[in-house]
Write a structure and sequence with these properties.
This is CUB domain-containing protein. It contains 7 helices and 15 strands. By secondary structure, it is an alpha+beta fold. The strands form 4 sheets. Strands 1, 3, 5, 9, 11, 12 and 13 form a 7-stranded mixed beta sheet that branches. The protein has a 4-stranded mixed beta sheet with strand order 2-4-10-8. Strands 6-7 form a two-stranded antiparallel sheet. A hairpin with a 2-residue loop joins strand 14 and strand 15.
């Protein structure tokens, strides 16, 4: 059986399950001492064998493979069995793993005769028979706690049947063991991605990235549109300012045409001076009278003589009237306290 092409959703799930160890049935060796585990009777294709004990007792377990898949493949997950070695040989406690069901069966190919310490044997191992015998020897041990975890599954070689998967090394295993994260083939070939799976994953990643970028661009466009709608157009603001300034200048020119004399004599300070105050009978009722342009002058009452220069002199510069009630300007004009009589 070969892995067929997958869709986007199954491709992503397929990719994730490579790194996920599925639940396996667990057998606790310290509770099964001197007993057998039958994979056929228990209806399993793979399992985890755990040994954890502080007892100073020997223990052995025999695993019998399936009749239709008689060989057993296994590897060590973790191991902590004593620290003592003598001349590179294990003292107690120690472990022996044999290829067969009898005590005299040979050691599994590739493993040392005795296993101990905290460093687990690397690699994947297999039996040449239908039985795997695991012996724990605790004689004379002072080890308080030991631990061991082994994952095993059954397989056979030859032509695989329906419902089975052909590994890269020629092993036939049950379909349900494929891509569960515990390497049932022994060479990681149970989860090699086909061309279709790789294409599906690449397309899924590219499509997801494209959708993400499109959402970001659309978001910023909406934000920019809202900002543009919340402020008036630049031309409208400019037109209002220009219209206001033009209207003000027009009113000012109209005022100049009505009220201001272009032929006023200029003093040495550039200040236009009248030859004399207006008749008092008018009492500044003329709308073009100087007093009407000085906002700070509220009302004046005069007697026979005009007021002092410090009040009377008002200057016009650039069509805007100012009160030069300043000593430095008045002193420069060379006048006395009052203007001469009108006579």
């Amino acid at each position: 059986m070969k892995i067929t092409e997958v869709t986007l959703s199954t491709g992503i799930l397929f990719f994730l399950t490579i790194y996920t160890v599925s639940g396996l049935k667990i057998y606790r060796m310290h509770r099964l001492c001197n007993k057998n585990i039958s994979m056929t009777s228990d209806g399993i294709f793979a399992a985890r064998l755990i040994f954890s004990s502080s007892r100073r007792h020997d223990c052995s377990v025999i695993v019998a493979g399936r009749y239709t898949a008689p060989y057993i493949r296994f590897h060590f997950e973790k191991m902590d069995i004593g620290n003592n070695t003598i001349n590179d040989a294990c003292s107690y406690p120690k472990l022996r793993i044999k290829d067969g069901m009898s005590t005299g069966a040979p050691i599994v190919n590739g493993l040392p005769a005795e296993i101990c310490g905290k460093t687990k044997p690397a690699g994947v191992y297999r039996t040449s028979t239908r039985f795997l015998r695991i012996e724990y020897d605790a004689v004379h041990t002072h080890q308080e706690n030991v631990s061991l975890s082994i994952i095993f599954n059954s397989f056979y070689t030859g032509s695989c049947k329906n419902g089975e998967y052909k590994c890269g090394n020629g092993y036939c295993i049950a379909d349900e063991l494929v891509c569960k994260g515990h390497n049932p083939c022994g060479d990681q070939s149970d989860c090699q991605l086909s061309v279709g799976a790789i294409v599906g994953i690449v397309l899924g990643v590219c499509g997801g990235l494209g959708i993400f970028i499109s959402c970001i661009v659309a978001y910023f466009k909406v934000i920019r549109s809202r900002k543009n709608l919340s402020r008036p157009p630049l031309n409208a603001t400019t037109d209002v300012v220009i219209s206001t300034v033009t209207s003000a200048n027009t009113n000012l020119r109209h005022f100049d045409d009505q009220c201001c004399d272009d032929d006023l004599p200029q003093s040495q300070f550039g200040i236009g001076l009248y030859s004399g105050p207006p008749p008092y009978s008018e009492h500044f009722k003329d709308p073009c009278n100087i007093a009407s342009h000085a906002q700070f002058v509220t009302a004046l009452e005069y007697e026979d003589n005009p007021p002092p220069y410090t009040v009377s002199y008002v200057a016009a510069t650039n069509n805007i009237w100012f009160d030069f009630n300043q000593s430095q300007f008045i002193s420069g004009l060379g006048f006395e306290d009052h203007p001469p009589p009108y006579s």
